[in-house]
Design a protein that fits this description.
This protein is mainly β. The protein has helices at about 160-170, 245-255, and strands at about 60, 95-100, 105, 110-115, 115, 135-140, 145-150, 180-185, 190, 195, 200-205, 215-220, 220-225, 230-240, 240, 260, 265-270, 280-290. The strands form 4 sheets. Strands 2, 6, 7, 8, 11, 12, 13, 14, 16, 17 and 18 form an 11-stranded antiparallel beta sheet that branches. A 3-stranded antiparallel beta sheet has the order 3-4-5, with no helix packed on it. A two-stranded antiparallel ribbon has the order 1-15. It is globular and about 45 Å long.
């Protein structure tokens, strides 16, 4: 997708397949699709602040009205046997800002926060969702995902990848998971100085719940790959989503401390589909981070 200083990203629909795809479909055979090996994609380091601050791009997500600090863990696929398999994962996150009192709960295997809820299971090993208004540091493991990249979407609308991705998981008999992930590569030339890039690309991904559901490789224009583990700064959102506004909040948090720095491009998690009340749709806006003095692979940077 072309990205300009005045770009508006419109996500016309996400997770609509949750209403169409069974959540209990058995994993497909890895031979269902001819594949070509693809190497895992590392998290790209952000550029050091150099540019003069400029007006950030407007990023607005619109959905149709509904018809109605260093942590690690290994979460088992059998950790929950009811509902959507939701489990609490306090060992995978740290509350660092925003609303420090708000909390989620798990009711019959479903994540809930007030009237907000998540109707599809998360990938195994993923941390619990950040509640609306809270800011967390979270540890994500590698995940297998199907990716669709758009670098020149007509009219600036991001959505052309949804049905190819939907058909991909349908063909492999893979049940829908949550969230749908949107990555904004090259959105900023200098995030900390709020300096947007002239253009970039948007990547939409459907996440496999486990790596056993299918092999890595290419399926037409879709690429299935394993991501690198990543640490992120994340803010939870309820209702309407203005990504630029939420990124401003993450930027403010980063500027107020000196332990963490930007380590990659922004991304967005969308947990709900169009049949969820717009006022209670649950999302997250995230920014990859790393400790100062470390490279993206966790190794200490040389002293200069």
């Amino acid at each position: 997708m072309k990205v300009s200083r005045s770009s508006t990203f419109v996500l016309p629909f996400v997770l609509i397949a949750a209403a169409c795809v069974s959540r209990t479909v058995a994993p497909a055979s890895p031979t269902a699709v001819e594949t070509k090996p693809v190497e895992p994609e590392p998290t790209r380091a952000a550029q050091a602040p150099e540019a003069t601050p400029a007006q950030a791009p407007t990023i607005e997500v619109v959905q149709p009205s509904p018809a109605s600090a260093d942590v690690a863990a290994d979460t088992s696929a059998s950790a929950a046997s009811v509902g959507m398999g939701a489990v609490r994962t306090p060992e995978l996150l740290q509350r660092v800002g925003g609303d420090r009192e708000i909390a989620i709960e798990v009711v019959e295997g479903v994540y809930r926060c007030d009237r907000a809820r998540i109707e599809a299971p998360l990938p195994v090993g993923y941390p619990e969702p950040t509640p609306p208004g809270a800011i967390d540091i979270k540890e994500y493991p590698s995940v297998r995902r199907a990716e669709w990249i758009e670098s020149d979407a007509a009219g600036g609308v991001m959505g052309g990848g949804f049905f190819p991705l939907f058909n991909h998981i349908k063909k492999r008999e893979i049940a829908m998971t949550s969230p749908v992930e949107m990555d904004f590569a090259g959105l900023y030339s200098d995030f900390m100085n709020d300096e947007p890039a002239e253009e970039g690309e948007t990547k939409m991904s459907f996440l496999y719940r486990t790596q056993a559901l299918g092999p890595v490789g290419e399926d037409g224009k879709i690429v299935v790959r394993d991501t690198a583990p990543v640490t992120v700064l994340s803010i939870g959102v309820k209702g309407g989503l203005d990504v630029a506004l939420e990124l401003d909040k993450l930027r403010t948090w980063l500027k107020a401390q000196d332990a963490w720095q930007v380590a990659g491009d922004p991304r967005m998690f969308v947990y709900n589909g169009p049949f969820t009340d717009p006022s209670w749709r649950w999302s997250e806006v995230q920014l990859p981070i790393r400790k100062r003095g470390e490279t993206n692979d966790g190794a200490a940077s040389p002293v200069r």
